[in-house]
Structures are given as structure tokens and as C-alpha cells.
């Protein structure tokens, strides 16, 4: 069995749920899942139970994270259009501003008036990240065109969405985009079997959409897990929330695809490390890396470190299990075990 060495991977889109929803995940379990999945740096979204829309909440969240994390974590700020005054205070304390233009977990959706106001006021040199589905992307693109502000379109799931971003790139707009593993490996057909465990935003799409994403992967900047854990009880309830965990399945799924010659290992490094570091302006320590055993194994929810304990990829045969993770020269994870105390990770 061969072992490969990769840089410590970066996931620019996770929901660690802490503070406020630690029954789903917390800073320790979420960053443990990150290490188990080969990620040494993750970026946490602001749609907490109380959204991270004030500098006080941001400070509290970062202070709390400092004591619990085992990999490095950066944060994004949130806005409903009411907190423009906070932007200057927090701009050097976050890696970007996340906006929700469609209904999703938290319900922090903004309208077009707020969108304009926010684009006018968010500092020029900082990133804006968007949850914008289908034709809503066009509205955002108008703002990008008008203001020239750097914008990242999260979790593109369909042909129409990717076409809109490809056009914007051809027009030289300052845009990047991400695609999630679930949209690359599952389709709407899987929902009949998976039920609530196959429901997330954006929803799974058609086989045609899925193939379009694969065929046009050269236009995609990053693979983001959109790790969005919810408890088994919540998923089994009458009104299950949207979202699926992904930190521990992203790399083995991509390595399986590499084994099937759908993309190269070098391209995985670009999508899960180089491009992410570039977008977020990260410099990684040269003593941060992971070692992956290129063995086949079966994904099992019960083996995962995420607190939610399930995965939409239950029973999938994949190739490539993270054996060891070294962060800033220190062995932090080996053979399924986190080897450092909570707080070893850095708040970025
Ligand atoms: C995410 C969540 O649960 O926080 N859910 C999801 O289905 N993707 C929110 C989001 O990324 O839209
Ligand atoms: Zn989203
Ligand atoms: Zn998300």
C-alpha cells in the first residue's frame, strides 16, 4: 500500500455550530473531524443560533474557539444589512463577509436593498461570500459589476449557476466559486433513498447538472465541504433541517475520483489547498502536511469524529485514509486519534 504526502488542506466553508448549537457539533468535535479529513485550516460560517453580526459576538466566538480547537480556524462575519457600522471595526478580524440570499439554516436572508447597501459599504480589499442560488446569482453579479468587490460564490450546484460564474470570469469580474462533494457525487435520485439525509441547500440536482460540474471543473476554484451537521433526531423529525456533514468524506471521495482518472492529485491540491490559500490570503507553514494511506475502505457514520455521527455517503467504498497530520511541525493526528489538547489550533 502506498502513502502520499499532501499539504495540510484548507476548507473555506464549514459550520462548526459553536456557540449556540453544540448538540450538532462544537469547536472540538468539528476541528477533530477536520483533522481526520486531512484539513489543517477551516473557515467557519456566521449563521450561528445568534448570527455573528456584531463585533462583540465575533470576539466571544473567537475567544471560545481559542480554548477548544485542534486545527486552525478563520471566521467570517454576517450581515442582515443592519450592522454597517460594525464593518470597519471587524474587517481585520475576519476573512470575509457571508451573505445569504436564499432561505437556508438560520433564516438570515437579505433583500436586494440590503444587498446594495452592503456591497457599497464592505471594505474593498475584503472578500464577500454568497449563498445565492440559480437566477439570484445574476442580481449579485450586478453588484459585483457595479462595485468591483471580490466575491466568492459558494456551493454551485447546477449548470445554470456555473454558467453564470463562467460568464462573469470571461467578463473579468473578480469572482471565484466553490463546488461541494455532495453535488459532485450525488443527484436528486439519491434523495429517494437518503430522505432527509440527502437534503441540503442547494438541493441535489439532476445527473445532467452533476456531469456539467465535472466537465467544467476547470472553472471551479475550490472544493468546499459545506460541512453542515445536524443531529440524527433533527434529521428524523417531521421538519428536518437542511445540511450534511462533509469534512471527513471530501478527500477520500476526491481520491477515489482520482483513482478513476476523473481528476489528478495535483488538481485536488489546487482545489483543496492552493486556490483556497490564495483566495483567503493564507501562508502555510512548511512543516504542515498530511500523509494519506492509499487504501480502500468503507465510509461509516459511526467511525466519524463529527458529533452528528452520520453521513450521506454511508457504505461508500473510497480510496485514501488520512494516516497522520502534522501541524506546524507537531503530530496532531494519527490512526484515528487526535493527539493534541483542545486549544492547540490557532484562531486566525
Ligand atoms: C447550511 C447549514 O446548515 O448551516 N445548510 C445547508 O444545507 N447547506 C447553511 C448553508 O450553507 O446554506
Ligand atoms: Zn449556503
Ligand atoms: Zn454552508
Would you give an account of this structure?
The protein is of the alpha/beta class and 348 residues long. It has one domain: TIM Barrel. The chain has helices spanning 27-36, 55-68, 87-90, 112-121, 136-147, 159-170, 181-185, 191-194, 207-215, 232-235, 250-259, 265-280; strands at residues 3-7, 9-14, 39-44, 72-75, 77-78, 97-100, 128-131, 151-153, 175-179, 222-223, 289-298, 317-327, 330-334, 337-338. The longest helix is centred in the last third of the chain and has 16 residues, at 265-280. The mean pLDDT is 97. One zinc ion is lined by residues 13, 15, 45, 226, 228.
Defining key terms:
348 residues; alpha/beta; TIM Barrel; six-stranded parallel beta sheet; 12 helices; binds N-carbamoyl-L-aspartate; binds zinc ion
Instruction: Write the CATH fold name.
Output: TIM Barrel
- Give the full name of the CATH homologous superfamily: Metal-dependent hydrolases
How far apart are the termini? 36 Å
Number of helices: 12
Name of the CATH architecture? Alpha-Beta Barrel
Radius of gyration, CA atoms, in whole angstroms: 19 Å
Helical content (DSSP H or I, runs of 4+): 25-40%
Count of DSSP E strands?
A: 14
What order do the strands of the largest sheet run in, or round the barrel if closed?
A: 5-6-7-8-9-10
Strand content: 15-25%
Question: Total domains, how many?
Answer: 1
The helix/strand order is EEHEHEEHEHEHEHEHHHEHHHEEEE
Query: What CATH first level would be assigned?
Result: Alpha Beta
The helix-and-strand class reads: alpha/beta
Mean pLDDT: 97
**Backbone shape:** globular
Could you name the ranges where pLDDT drops below 50 across 5 or more consecutive residues? none
Main sheet overview? 6 strands, parallel
Present as ligands are:
N-carbamoyl-L-aspartate, zinc ion
Amino acid at each position: 500500500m502506498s502513502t502520499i504526502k499532501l499539504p495540510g488542506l484548507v476548507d473555506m466553508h464549514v459550520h462548526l455550530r459553536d456557540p449556540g448549537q453544540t448538540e450538532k457539533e462544537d469547536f472540538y468535535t468539528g476541528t477533530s473531524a477536520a483533522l481526520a479529513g486531512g484539513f489543517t485550516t477551516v473557515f467557519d460560517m456566521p449563521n450561528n443560533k445568534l448570527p455573528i453580526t456584531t463585533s462583540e459576538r465575533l470576539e466571544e466566538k473567537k475567544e471560545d474557539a481559542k480554548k477548544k480547537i485542534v486545527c486552525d480556524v478563520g471566521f467570517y462575519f454576517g450581515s442582515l444589512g443592519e450592522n454597517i457600522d460594525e464593518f470597519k471595526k471587524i474587517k481585520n478580524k475576519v476573512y470575509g463577509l457571508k451573505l445569504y440570499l436564499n432561505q437556508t439554516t438560520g433564516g438570515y436572508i437579505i433583500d436586494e436593498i440590503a444587498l446594495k447597501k452592503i456591497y457599497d459599504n464592505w471594505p474593498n480589499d475584503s472578500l464577500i461570500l454568497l449563498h445565492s442560488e440559480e437566477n439570484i446569482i445574476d442580481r449579485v453579479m450586478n453588484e459585483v459589476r457595479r462595485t468591483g468587490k471580490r466575491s466568492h460564490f459558494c456551493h454551485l450546484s447546477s449548470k445554470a449557476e456555473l454558467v453564470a460564474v463562467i460568464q462573469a470570469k470571461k467578463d473579468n469580474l473578480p469572482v471565484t466559486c466553490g463546488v461541494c462533494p455532495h453535488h459532485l457525487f450525488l443527484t436528486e435520485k439519491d434523495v429517494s433513498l437518503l430522505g432527509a439525509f440527502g437534503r441540503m441547500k442547494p438541493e441535489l440536482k439532476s445527473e445532467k447538472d452533476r456531469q456539467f460540474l465535472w466537465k467544467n471543473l476547470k472553472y471551479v476554484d475550490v472544493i468546499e465541504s459545506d460541512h453542515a451537521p445536524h443531529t440524527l433526531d433533527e434529521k428524523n423529525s417531521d421538519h428536518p433541517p437542511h445540511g450534511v456533514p462533509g469534512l471527513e468524506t471530501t478527500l477520500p471521495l476526491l481520491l477515489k475520483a482520482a483513482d478513476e482518472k476523473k481528476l489528478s492529485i495535483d488538481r485536488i491540491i489546487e482545489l483543496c489547498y492552493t486556490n483556497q490559500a490564495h483566495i483567503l490570503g493564507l501562508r502555510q507553514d512548511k512543516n504542515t502536511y498530511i500523509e494519506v494511506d492509499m487504501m480502500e475502505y468503507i465510509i461509516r457514520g459511526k467511525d466519524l469524529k463529527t458529533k452528528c455521527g452520520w453521513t450521506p455517503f454511508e457504505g461508500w467504498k473510497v480510496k485514501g485514509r488520512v494516516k497522520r497530520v502534522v501541524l506546524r511541525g507537531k503530530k496532531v493526528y494519527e490512526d484515528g486519534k487526535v493527539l493534541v489538547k483542545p486549544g492547540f489550533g490557532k484562531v486566525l
